[in-house]
Design brief:
This protein is mostly beta strands. The chain is built from 1 helix and 6 strands, in the order H-E-E-E-E-E-E. The chain is 8% helix and 31% strand.
Length: 95
């Protein structure tokens, strides 16, 4: 997925909040996201059902390559370490 230039960019890092993350996850239509963390890593949210915000944390499920596999991994991230968010181009639907 290629990222678009819809990131929040300022000279100082934007403080991401649980409320702002929830707003992004609840947009209609949803647009896939990439979260960048203070350690330089990034984590993709391809669908709103793959992310859960609880307190100051976001849990992101990784989709499995196997449609029959019930679960992949779940990552737990501290929202205070999210430095920016970019929108991703949606993947073409599988038919």
């Amino acid at each position: 997925m290629a990222a678009t230039a819809v990131a929040w960019r300022q000279r100082e890092p934007v403080r991401m909040t649980p409320t702002r993350i929830k707003e992004l996850l609840n947009r209609k239509p949803f647009r896939p996201l990439r979260l960048f963390l203070s350690d330089g890593s990034h984590h993709d949210v391809p669908h709103p059902e793959f992310a859960w915000v609880f307190g100051g944390r976001i849990f992101i499920g990784e989709p499995s390559d196997d449609a029959w596999e019930a679960d992949g991994r779940v990552k737990e991230l501290a929202i205070r370490h999210v430095t920016r968010v970019e929108e991703l181009k949606p993947r073409p639907s599988r038919r």
